[in-house]
Task: inverse folding
């Protein structure tokens, strides 16, 4: 009896399995037949019929219909003229590959005449774009829902407005709800219901979305109600004032980032010029060497660009520092107390370094890849976005500044550097080897210049003339801040960067630099020692 029962159970299981396979096969066949029917209709349809076909298709298979819409919007949906089958074609040239949508099979295009694009006009493009946007309103990702809602602001249809109203009842994300409110407010601007236009204007006045401002501007052109017109104009003024404020914030941000670059470029010069009194015209080339070091490190680490900067920073410091020590030991040590000869000698060295780089890397500019963690921007609001690379440079500048300050205050080298800068003769009498201090100081300042080159490589192309663009600015920062004073260099660099960016919109980049230079000349006439003058007997004498 037990054997008979077991056999019956097995037979039933097998029967159920066969039925499930049969039903799945029938469903697949039905789906394929349905796809073939829509496929043939869409291939031969006129413009006014395509929207109806896609709409019917969406009721059967929403995801499939949406993917077809995207292909049509991207001009990648083609059909084979003989078989009326749909294909995804990125390149319709001879020899290219076409992917059949029904089964995913790849077909090589033998003749362009065999395939024809499923074309759409502007009306269909707008309709299909709206369908994609409304479909994204139910996306699991809140950011996708928010972006989809914002795309519907321009001219929301009644169906879209009804869908947004329904979805807003269950939406939990605050950013998505805010986007929904803007869409509904734009739709309510022209409502005849009492109080709705006024409420819509109040809602739109609290957003900086460009589409909302455009909707209010369009409303003022056709509004007949004086009270609503005055309210709309007041809202527009409020939005414009906020946008101007954030434009100012952006200008300050760009100014701080430019100032950070000037601080990095000038801080090494502040050390060498302040301690040794040497006018080093090759300082810009030391910055250039740091930038090229970053380029070489990336060539050696092509598969690890994300970590290349962590290698490039110490490498640039060492390479530029060694070059600086070589310059000091080989040339400058023989020219102490002769500033004109030192200036001419270092200028000659700068030309030699430029030509050496041209011989090694060619005169062409080189591009340094920015790591992905430094790319992109932080969106504060629709009119203000902070570039991440500039933000990292600001933080990096502050890190270098405070690290250098700690070296100058907390280390033996820093103590000796300060002693030599304040009174070289007294420092020698106390047993300080001033020659060794000069070499190490020059190496330290040169290494910091190389680090500045690493930062500059993330903002601009690397070329032989890179340093020449910053040598004058570096000297201006040092002189304006106070020779040999690190805090003065920081304040001066940030101030000059801000001044340049504030004046550029109305004066232009070139005139802004000229005005800054004139200001510094006049300032030095009043305060020859800069903002933070150096203290000590040597400074006074």
Result:
């Amino acid at each position: 009896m037990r054997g008979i029962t077991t056999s019956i159970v097995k037979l039933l299981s097998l029967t159920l399995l066969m039925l499930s396979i049969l039903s799945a096969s029938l469903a697949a066949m039905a789906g394929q037949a349905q796809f073939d029917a829509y496929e043939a209709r869409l291939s031969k349809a006129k413009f006014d019929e395509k929207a109806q076909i896609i709409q019917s298709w969406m009721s059967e298979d929403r995801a499939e219909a949406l993917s077809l819409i995207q292909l049509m919007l991207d001009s990648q949906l083609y059909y084979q003229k003989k078989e009326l089958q749909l294909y995804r074609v990125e390149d319709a040239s001879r020899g290219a590959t076409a992917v059949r949508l029904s089964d995913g099979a790849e077909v090589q295009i033998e003749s362009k005449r065999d395939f024809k694009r499923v074309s759409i006009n502007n009306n269909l493009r707008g309709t299909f774009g709206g369908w994609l946007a409304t479909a994204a309103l139910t996306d699991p990702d809140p950011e996708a829902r928010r972006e989809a809602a914002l795309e519907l602001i321009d001219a929301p249809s009644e169906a879209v407005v009804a869908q947004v109203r329904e979805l807003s009842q269950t939406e939990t994300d605050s950013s998505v709800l805010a986007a929904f409110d803007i869409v509904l407010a734009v739709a309510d601007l022209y409502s005849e219901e009492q109080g709705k236009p006024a409420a819509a204007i109040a809602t739109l006045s609290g957003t900086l979305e460009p589409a909302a401002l455009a909707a209010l501007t369009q409303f003022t052109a056709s509004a007949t109600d004086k009270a609503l017109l005055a309210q709309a104009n007041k809202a527009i003024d409020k939005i414009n004032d906020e946008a101007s404020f954030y434009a100012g914030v952006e200008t300050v941000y760009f100014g701080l980032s430019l100032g950070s670059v000037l601080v990095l470029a000038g801080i090494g010069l502040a050390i060498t010029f302040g301690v040794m009194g040497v006018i080093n015209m090759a300082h810009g080339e030391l910055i250039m060497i740091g930038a090229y070091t970053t380029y070489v490190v990336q060539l050696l680490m092509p598969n690890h660009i994300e970590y290349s900067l962590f290698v490039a920073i110490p490498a640039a410091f060492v390479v530029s520092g060694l070059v600086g020590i070589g310059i000091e030991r080989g040339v400058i040590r023989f020219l102490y107390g002769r500033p004109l000869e030192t200036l001419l000698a270092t200028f000659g060295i700068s030309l030699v370094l430029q030509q050496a780089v041209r011989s090694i890397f060619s005169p062409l500019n080189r591009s340094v890849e920015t790591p992905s963690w430094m790319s992109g921007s932080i969106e504060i609001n629709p009119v203000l976005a902070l570039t991440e690379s500039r933000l990292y440079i600001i933080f990096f500048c502050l890190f270098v500044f405070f690290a250098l300050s700690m070296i100058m205050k907390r280390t033996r080298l820093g103590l000796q550097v300060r002693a030599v800068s304040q009174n070289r003769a007294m420092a020698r009498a106390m047993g300080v080897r001033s020659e060794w201090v000069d070499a190490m100081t020059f190496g330290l300042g040169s290494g910091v210049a190389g680090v500045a080159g690493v930062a500059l490589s993330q903002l601009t192309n690397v070329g032989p003339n890179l340093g020449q663009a910053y040598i004058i600015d570096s000297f201006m920062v040092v002189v304006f801040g106070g020779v040999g004073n690190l805090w003065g260099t920081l304040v001066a660099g940030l101030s000059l960067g801000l001044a340049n960016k504030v004046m550029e919109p109305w004066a232009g980049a070139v005139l802004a630099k000229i005005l800054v230079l004139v200001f510094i000349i006049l300032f030095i006439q009043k305060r020859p020692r800069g903002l933070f003058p150096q203290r000590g007997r040597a400074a006074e004498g």
